[in-house]
Write a structure and sequence with these properties.
Two copies of one chain form a homodimer. Chain A has one domain (2-285): Divalent-metal-dependent TIM barrel enzymes (TIM Barrel). Chain A has eleven helices and ten strands. By secondary structure, the first copy, chain A, is α/β, with parallel strands linked by helices. Chains A, B: It comes from Nonomuraea turkmeniaca.
């Protein structure tokens, strides 16, 4: 396993700056975001990363597949739009040579990420999960034809209303197992899964289905904007070593991405953030420091 | 199933006021809190409830059993203190004739509820769960001898750091099944479990182990103090009817407690709160309104 910088950790760096920073700090891989790729242009982004000799450990992100659960024409159109957007994301992942496209599947239909409940949303969480399965049936073959692996990311249940009705690794894995391994895998992100009493059992069960291992800490208490509750490893409550060991034991040999959403870390000097990330990776993430 | 007022929903009412309010609104049961019972005195509280003809649907709460995970003498003493405190809670539940004593088992050792992380806490969530099992082995027979049923309450994973390392109904149930049914059951609280992809499977599996069914809504977004994110039924994201139906199908025939921690509801006229609670129970909680 080697360390990879998910570029949202240093979100004020442009893609060229993140590529340059990764090389300067001796990293071999980088996790990209579609927004940053779009800023730079897809072909240019792919060339920059390739010329720098970096692997693309993941592309973030596709998903938001649940709005089809809204009634009538609105739902049908939302479902079609989501599939189209995800096909674009798959095409981008293919051109970038990304190891996987991360899918954040979406929350309850009609609940917008990070916004208060409006009118006309759906409380049907089971139905939303069915929409995800239906979308996956469309997208997995499309991804497979382009050599892209979709990586289903279970999110912490606090994000179930607005971001992901996939709440546990086991649930994501059950969905993934319906498809060939090269088409659909799962993400193990410590922030989202550390509390799960079935975590170690499900990591072992996932085995080669683990498409991405992402690490960051879980801060306590969470800040008011719970999206920003991700901390540098060692600053929160997670005991990383047993999780890393379990992921290794499951056979994972990919990159370890550090993906942190945190106002203080974004405000800091990105070079210092990367230096700290490397030190903490050695100190608290690797099973044998 | 009949409706019960958990007295924390009207927390500015004293115990006599809550008993009087429950009777005035035609309720048959009440959920009590130890703090409120202590204010009034145990014997007097028991007499008030009995004379009013109310069932005590639960006593909240025992638990906080994990501090024994701290090292050395501090841990040993904390474990002994927790057992002693829980034996007192069991004695109180017996005297009140409560249908169960709710256990909120505690979070990571050394993390104080609602407080920032201090020094010297433990990240060993697996170890904390073992401490809970050890404590239960001590407390279940003690409860059994006094005719008290312990009700293990899984809390939403957001409370895992500081309040409950029991995060899912399935996990609570697995612990409970090691003991006779009259000694240990589980709580199904909609706020804590609505997101769980295994919820309906685990409610069915729980069957007669369901010792308490508590309802309140899950607000989105949660307020800054996440403890206060509980809302009146209908104000949040939970689809209650299928959950209530599943609890009924599992054979539960006890009371349905409404337990809401919410600053606005606490500031409102308690009589209006109880009236709204009754209306919403009919409108959105019962499977067939």
């Amino acid at each position: 396993m080697t360390l990879s910088l998910n570029q949202w950790t240093t979100r004020h760096w442009s893609l060229p700056e993140a590529v340059d920073g990764s090389v300067r700090h001796g990293l071999e891989a980088i996790g990209l975001w579609r927004e940053k790729v779009a800023e730079q242009g897809l072909a240019q982004s792919a060339k920059l990363v390739r010329d720098a000799g970096l692997r693309v450990s993941s592309l973030c992100r596709g998903g938001f597949l649940t709005a089809g659960g809204l009634p009538g024409e609105e739902g049908r159109q939302a479902f079609a739009d989501a599939l189209e957007e995800n096909r674009r994301a798959i095409d981008e992942a293919a051109e970038l040579g990304a190891a996987c496209l991360v899918l954040v599947v979406g929350g309850l239909p009609g609940v917008k990420p990070g916004e208060p409940l409006g009118k006309g949303f759906s409380r049907d969480v089971a139905g939303a999960r069915e929409r995800v399965a239906e979308a996956l049936a469309e997208l997995a073959p499309y991804a497979g034809e382009r050599g892209v692996k979709l990586a289903l990311e279970p999110l912490h249940p606090i994000y179930c209303p607005d971001r992901a009705v996939l709440c546990t690794l086991g649930q994501a894995l059950d969905l993934a197992l319906a498809y060939p391994e090269e088409q659909v895998g799962v993400v193990v992100d410590t922030f989202h899964v550390w509390w799960d009493p079935r975590l170690f059992e499900d990591i072992a069960r996932a085995g080669s289905r683990i498409a991405s291992y992402q690490v960051c800490d879980y801060l306590h208490p969470l800040p008011e904007d719970v999206l920003l509750g991700r901390g540098m490893m060692g600053d929160g409550v997670i005991d990383f070593r047993p999780i890393t060991q379990a992921v290794l034991d499951a056979g994972y040999a990919g990159d370890v991405e550090v993906e942190i959403f945190n106002a203080d870390i974004w405000a800091a000097d990105p070079d210092e953030v990367v230096a700290t990330m490397k030190a903490r990776y050695e100190d608290v993430v690797l099973p044998h420091p």
